[in-house]
Amino acid sequence: MTPEAQSKIDSLVNNNKVLVFMKGSKLMPQCGFSNNVVQILNTLGVPYETVDVLDDPEIRQGIKEYSNWPTIPQIYLNGEFLGGSDIAIELYQSGELQQMVEVAMAS
Amino acid sequence: MITPQQVETMIRAKFPDAEVKVAGDGEHFEAIIVSDEFVDKNRVKQHQMVYAAVNEAMDSNVIHALSLKTYTPETWQTVSQ
Description:
- The complex is a heterodimer of chains A (107) and B (81).
- Chain A has one domain: 3-Layer(aba) Sandwich (Glutaredoxin), CATH 3.40.30.
- Chain A has five helices and four strands; from the N terminus they run αβαβαββαα.
- Chain A has helices at residues 3-14, 32-44, 57-67, 85-94, 96-106, and strands at 18-22, 49-52, 74-77, 80-83.
- In chain A, α2 (32-44) links the parallel β1 (18-22) and β2 (49-52).
- In chain A, α1 crosses α3 and α2 runs parallel beside α4 (85-94).
- Chain B is α+β, with helices and mostly antiparallel strands.
- Chain B has one domain (4-79): 2-Layer Sandwich (GMP Synthetase, Chain A, domain 3).
- Chain B has a three-stranded mixed beta sheet.
- The mean pLDDT of chain B is 95.
- Classes of the chains: A alpha+beta (107), B alpha+beta (81).
- At the A-B interface, β4 and α4 of A face α2, α3 and β3 of B.
- Chain B: Pfam families: BolA.
- Chain B: Belongs to the BolA/IbaG family.
- Chain B: InterPro entries: BolA, BolA-like_sf, BolA/IbaG_stress_morph_reg.
């Protein structure tokens, strides 16, 4: 990962309470897994930002090393890596995600 | 294309004592892994351990997607009932 990509990702995750690295946009997700995450966050009604990794090859590769996670989407909550689509679905179904997001928004 | 059995073998190589079940279409796979090694580790760490076992196949895009469900023997008891 280039130092530029690293500092770009640092600043993105630290300046957004809820951030999703995904393929496509909120309105037009380009992958089913990214779509899952968008649908969950929309259902929770929480404000969140997205980064389209298809627009930026450096971030697309860099975020995999940054999080030590080989797949997209990736969710960051309060600067901390939460997981990908599988973990988001599990946390959503157990009700934990709602709580975690509320805590993050209040902090 | 690789078979679910091949993915299962890769995972088993890193988790010899685990219960491993993989299904898939040759590119997209779903795996369930039950292992003692997950005890006291959070979900992110558990999934990172499994992804590490299939790192090369994911890097080279032989595996396009691998959906994971990881359990300790204890948590598996609660979901399998």
